[in-house]
Amino acid sequence: MQFALQPNIPEHSLQQVLELLDVDDLEVKLKNERKTRHGDYRKLPNGKHQITINSSLNKYRFLITLLHEIAHFETYQRYGRSIKPHGKEWKLIFQHLMLPFLNPNIFPKSLLPLLANHIKNPKASSDTDQRLSLALKQFDETNDLHFVFEVPLGKEFKIYNGKIFRRGAKRIKRFECLEIKSGRTYLFNPNAEVEILD
Q1: pTM
Q2: How far apart are the C-alpha atoms of 177 and 168, rounded to whole Å?
Q3: pLDDT at 2 over 60
């Protein structure tokens, strides 16, 4: 597992990560990019546990996602299925796991205050934290995608599956966007990455 993880996480985090993963019935698998999630955790029918993570993530987002999913595993081990997936139990375990990694040898100094703020009340995805998501994007490979909040009002954009939308007004946290083909309105997270059309 060391050789699979090493190029995907910050160098100085490897030993700590391997210690967290030193569990016989837990396996980490790298997946091709999935647009709807960065990673997931599940208990398999054979009783073993599996974490999958997109191999395309930059090393900082990969580490955050891995710790997020390890927190799900540890929460399941302690509490079973009788709690909310991102409830207070998971939040406390995720905070406990993240704290030792909030270190300038692991994360760039520019990310540390954003991560510290994020783990005060972590959400189901780091993408829902607009400031953290934007800061993490600077470490991604260059692409022509933009966040929905960067799309001008009334401008059309395309998402990963080819559907075309027109950006509308912002509600409290999300943007109303009209799907051109169906005429239906959808709500988009401000940090959803899209291709702006000419």
Answers
A1: 0.83
A2: 5
A3: no
